[in-house]
Amino acid sequence: MRFLTFVGAAALLSAQAGAQIINFERTQSGAVPTDDANLTINTPFIVNGPIVPVEVRIGVDKNLDGVRDTALKFERFGPDANDAFNNFLLGAKDTADLDFSQQLGAWMVRSAGSVAEYPIFIDYSAPVTGVSGEIWDIEGRGDSEEYEQWLVEALDSSGNVLASALSPAGIDDLLPLDGEPWVFSLAADNIIRVRITFVGDAEFAGFVFNNLNATAAVEGPTFFTHQPDSPVSDAGGVPHATLYWDEPITIRTEDVTVVSDNGAGLPVPFKVLGSRTQVTTIMFTGAPGGIDTGVSVPLTEGAYEITVHDSARATENNYPIDGDADGVAGGDLTISVASSCLADCDGNGILNLDDLDCFVASFLSGCN
């Protein structure tokens, strides 16, 4: 999909609408871009809309008046005099991690300087029902507390927010997306504008954008099932939960939360195993509210809620998981596991002679 060719015609509006993916490998007129040239704010790309061809215009609002007034710039892959991002792991400018080099392609667009205070707008000539795209190289700033983060919102003609997606925040030079794309995917009726806003705390924020699917959301990895999927009646408890996906996903500890499902919501220590595979194992490594021992500590006597956030993503293309199973990438997944030791009659988490006394008393009372 990365190399679908867009053929637009700003001067020939009657021309047939081009491919849905605007990958910036061509200008609006269909020419090969020139490095550092402006992506003119009033010349449209033309794509197939739900009913009629749709004109798509992109630009920065530096006057903060809700109108595009500053152009993004075409940027060629690889280091040159003016660069869009730095891949710290590879030590190379405007270079994707190897798994994503085709996804980046030869061209992208970037901001001319910082847009930390200025929104980017994607405007449509007619309503659409979905949009997706890629913001590249979201990360932290070395050992400082500054980080990058982006909010993408789909708007209607009255400026109402129809759908939104929040990127993960930067952690350090390499995480979470050094040299990789963050893919957003939004679906709603009557989208007429997309607003992209920097919400991190870094003073300087360059914007790097690619692969705009102007009229459709994309699907993400979907969840099949998990084990155990019913309460475990075993004094040994539940050592881990195993999740199964329809494709390999990249998942980190930061993408998961585990809490006790007893009203207290105590955090449960855990490890995540199986990243970049279709099988994710959440190994519990401490008691609820306790310390992380680093080794297996089975959970006993109770239910536990596991949430996989949509910062977990497809290994192949970084599409967020479709955790809420609505057919659109994005949305958290929540499952539960439970331990119920039937022999622990008095429910104190220990099997001893007291459980026999409890059983006899229950038996004699008719289980009242």
Please render the helix and strand layout as text.
Layout lengths: L20 E2 L15 E2 L5 E4 L4 E8 L11 E5 L9 E2 L4 E2 L7 H4 L2 E4 L9 E17 L13 E6 L5 E6 L14 E18 L9 E6 L9 E5 L12 E11 L5 E5 L9 E4 L3 E8 L17 E7 L4 E2 L18 E7 L13 H12 L4
Antiparallel strand pairs: 1-13, 2-5, 3-4, 4-9, 5-8, 6-7, 8-13, 9-12, 9-13, 10-11, 10-12, 14-15, 15-18, 15-20, 16-19, 17-18, 19-21
Number of helices: 2
Structural class, by secondary structure, is mainly beta
Number of strands: 21
How large a portion of the residues is in β-strands, by DSSP E? 35-45%
Overall 3D form = elongated
Termini gap: 65 Å
**pLDDT under 50 segments (min length 5)?**
1-19
Mean pLDDT figure: 90
Order of helices and strands: EEEEEEEHEEEEEEEEEEEEEEH
Helix content: under 10%
User: Could you describe the largest sheet, including whether it forms a barrel?
Assistant: 11 strands, antiparallel
The radius of gyration is 25 Å
Quick structural gist:
The chain has 2 helices and 21 strands. It has 368 residues and is mainly β. Strands 1, 2, 3, 4, 5, 8, 9, 10, 11, 12 and 13 form an 11-stranded antiparallel beta sheet that branches. Strands 14, 15, 17, 18 and 20 form a 5-stranded antiparallel beta sheet that branches.
